[in-house]
Specification:
Length: 296
């Protein structure tokens, strides 16, 4: 479970925000790499599943590959509707998160290239807590230094702790705490699924999401896709990338938008329906609907 703290500006300006404590920024939803077409197919399937589950769409539905634009056509009762697909990710508004994700993936790649040097990390999670932005030219060296730090087996967090008598009054901070490199704290934990071999890397950082930033992002997406061939625009949060990874914090962005739907006002020239879609939760909310559009 991820918990965030919500608030507003102390000066009275209406710009709601959520402060999210350090949380894992990567979740691998698919082991295999995904093409753009596969991602779009997963996106439209999740969207239609969410609508069908809430009885908000007529059947039967036929999906037809589009001309890009639009990405897809949805045929309902012989009526073909142009559907354009796009994404809104938290890393679009918070670049520091993109950097933390990059460091985590770079570390995982380097560890996997030299697995024989890290037998003690098998079935473990290497946790990085990124406390400040790293200069682009320094990131490779930072990860190399973390790799060097991890070569010495220092156990894992909770090792040799007897929880049968309750949580210890003073938690031991020796095992599993590998120190820090360039303001990045390094810890090692056991995987929850102990039968799963290999090393996992989890990179986290604290972040703040503001509604004004999201509003700018959504306006940009709508303006890009507002074309005569597109009738429906689906903006998805939490989509997997081509490596199969999704950012769990995208769900927070969806939640902040959903909580403040009345703050958003779109006036497209061509689009008749704009939907926000939570891929990780199979949920859909409408951001805009033309009053004359009743075909979908």
């Amino acid at each position: 479970m991820i918990i965030a703290l919500g608030g507003d500006n102390s000066n009275g300006e209406k710009d709601p925000f959520w402060l999210v404590p350090p949380n894992a920024l990567d979740e691998q939803l698919f082991k295999a790499e995904l093409t753009q077409v596969k991602i779009e197919n997963l996106q439209i399937l999740s969207f239609l599943t969410a609508l069908s589950a809430s009885f908000r769409i007529n059947h039967p539905i036929e999906l037809i590959h589009g001309n890009d634009p639009p990405d897809k056509f949805v045929r309902i009762d012989k009526r073909e509707i142009g559907v354009e697909l796009t994404e809104a990710a938290i890393t679009d508004v918070r670049r520091d998160l993109a950097q933390a994700r990059y460091l985590g993936r770079l570390l995982l790649n380097k560890l996997n290239e030299n697995l024989t040097e890290y037998p003690h990390l098998d079935k473990k999670i290497v946790s990085l807590s990124v406390n400040q932005e790293q200069p682009a030219g320094q990131r490779e060296k930072t990860v190399d230094d973390i790799c060097e730090l991890l070569k010495t087996d220092q156990g894992y967090v909770g090792e040799n702790v007897d929880f049968s008598k309750g949580f210890p009054k003073v938690y031991p901070n020796s095992n599993g705490f590998y120190g820090s490199v360039d303001q990045i704290s390094v810890q090692v934990h056991l995987k929850q699924q102990q039968q799963e071999p290999g090393i996992q890397v989890s990179s986290s950082t604290q972040t703040e999401i503001r509604l004004s930033q999201i509003d700018e992002l959504l306006e940009e997406r709508v303006n890009e896709k507002d074309k005569s061939c597109n009738e429906i625009l689906i903006i998805s949060c939490g989509l997997p990338d081509k490596k199969g990874y999704s950012c769990p914090l995208d769900t927070f962005m969806f939640g902040l938008i959903e909580e403040h739907l009345s703050n958003f006002c779109f006036s497209p020239s061509h689009l008749k329906l704009i939907c926000l879609h939570n891929f990780q939760r199979n949920k859909v909310v409408e951001l805009y609907r033309n009053k004359d559009f009743t075909d979908f």
